[in-house]
């Protein structure tokens, strides 16, 4: 079992530092070079890593991890679509499905409103964790806080203490909201989809800022929280 754990740790270290040599990985993980070398050999034989630029002294990950991630994403999309459609019918607004990736959330699916005034975000766009409803919904269930909090609008939370209080409020009510914190013309509410080890995605209701008064914000917040719980349950 320890060999498997070591190999996974080495894979994560290579992904974070690539291209990287055995010595750098060993120092980063605090493991003996011989242990790291065995793990690298195993990962290479299994197709998870390859020599960087043809040099067997430095390694980088292959597309295998990405292929598996895409399959996982497809499963998430399949489970989410009926939940998203019901949420769109109940709100009449655009519904987003995002997944956490590093210091951001990435849009992987959307169902758009039929209303003529809408804000369309492209699939694959990255939104900051601290300045978006989807991001804060995820961040509320992660350990630690971000150190760098850049401002995007006048309402972006850039103070660590204020963000900590905001995330406590998110956990208390079950959903996060965005009051023009990334773009001043966008409002949203979002809730996290949770797995055994933390947030795996988030669902949101997104509208032009002019179309989300306080009473609707609270109503949509309850609906998106229910939808995220339904998706969490369907994923097991």
Automatic annotation (TrEMBL):
GO biological process, one term: negative regulation of DNA-templated transcription
InterPro entries cross-referenced by the UniProt entry: GAF-like_dom_sf (IPR029016), HTH_MetabolicPath_Reg (IPR050707), Tscrpt_reg_IclR_C (IPR014757), Tscrpt_reg_IclR_N (IPR005471), WH-like_DNA-bd_sf (IPR036388), WH_DNA-bd_sf (IPR036390)
Domain IclR-ED, residue spans: 64-236
Gene3D superfamilies: 3.30.450.40, Winged helix-like DNA-binding domain superfamily/Winged helix DNA-binding domain (1.10.10.10)
GO molecular function terms noted in the UniProt entry: DNA binding; DNA-binding transcription factor activity
Keyword hit for Transcription: yes
Keywords: DNA-binding, Transcription, Transcription regulation
Keyword Disulfide bond: no
SUPFAM superfamilies assigned to the protein according to its UniProt record, in alphabetical order: GAF domain-like, Winged helix' DNA-binding domain
Pfam families referenced in this protein's UniProt entry, alphabetically: HTH_IclR, IclR_C
Annotated ranges, domain HTH iclR-type: 1-76
Name recorded for this polypeptide: IclR family transcriptional regulator, acetate operon repressor
Source organism (scientific name): Nonomuraea solani
Source taxonomy: Bacteria, Bacillati, Actinomycetota, Actinomycetes, Streptosporangiales
């Amino acid at each position: 079992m320890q060999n498997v754990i070591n190999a996974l740790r080495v894979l994560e270290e290579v992904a974070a530092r690539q291209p990287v040599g055995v010595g750098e990985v060993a120092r980063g993980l605090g493991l003996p070079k011989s242990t790291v070398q065995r793990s690298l050999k195993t990962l290479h034989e299994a197709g998870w890593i390859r020599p960087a630029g043809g040099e067997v002294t430095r390694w980088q990950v292959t597309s295998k991890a990405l292929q598996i991630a895409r399959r996982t994403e497809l499963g998430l999309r399949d489970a989410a679509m009926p939940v998203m459609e019901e949420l769109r019918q109940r709100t009449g607004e655009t519904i987003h499905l995002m997944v956490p990736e590093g210091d951001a959330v990435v849009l992987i699916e959307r169902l758009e409103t039929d209303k003529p005034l809408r804000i369309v975000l492209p699939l694959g766009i990255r939104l900051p964790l601290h300045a978006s409803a989807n991001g804060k919904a995820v961040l509320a269930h992660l350990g630690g806080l971000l150190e760098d909090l850049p401002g995007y609008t006048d309402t972006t939370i850039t103070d660590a203490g204020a963000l900590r209080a905001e995330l406590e409020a998110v956990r208390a009510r079950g959903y996060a909201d965005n009051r023009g914190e990334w773009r001043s013309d966008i409002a949203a509410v979002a809730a996290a989809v949770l797995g055994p080890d933390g947030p795996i995605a988030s669902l949101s209701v997104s509208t032009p800022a002019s179309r989300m008064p306080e009473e609707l914000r609270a109503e949509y917040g309850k609906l998106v929280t229910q939808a995220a719980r339904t998706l969490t349950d369907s994923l097991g």
